[in-house]
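Protein chain data
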Amino acid sequence: MEAVIKFADLTVRSLLILNGGAALAVLSFAANKAGSNSALAWSVWYFGVGAACSVATAALSYFGQSFFSHDRDSIGCWFQGSAIVFGFAGWLLFLFGMLDASSRM
């Protein structure tokens, strides 16, 4: 079970790094390319919301594990399911941001 929790932790951290790094890369690219800053605004928005989803995933996972450790499995399952939804949303937002950025460059 400990290996599963470590893997989930690594996944959430990777999601945050992907979205945050992509947002920084797009901002850096837009700063060097005159006149296209507003064209890449949606890409930065996708990456920013994706990063926020990864933080929400971490928080929901923490609360879910807390409830599981106190034998409140039904509440823990709700938090765990919500964390999965936010994690999936973070991945989708990363993909949308990548597609949007590549179509505007």
Notes: The CA atoms of residues 16 and 43 lie 15 Å apart. The chain has a mean pLDDT of 85. The longest helix spans residues 73-104. The helical segments are 2-32, 41-69, 73-104.
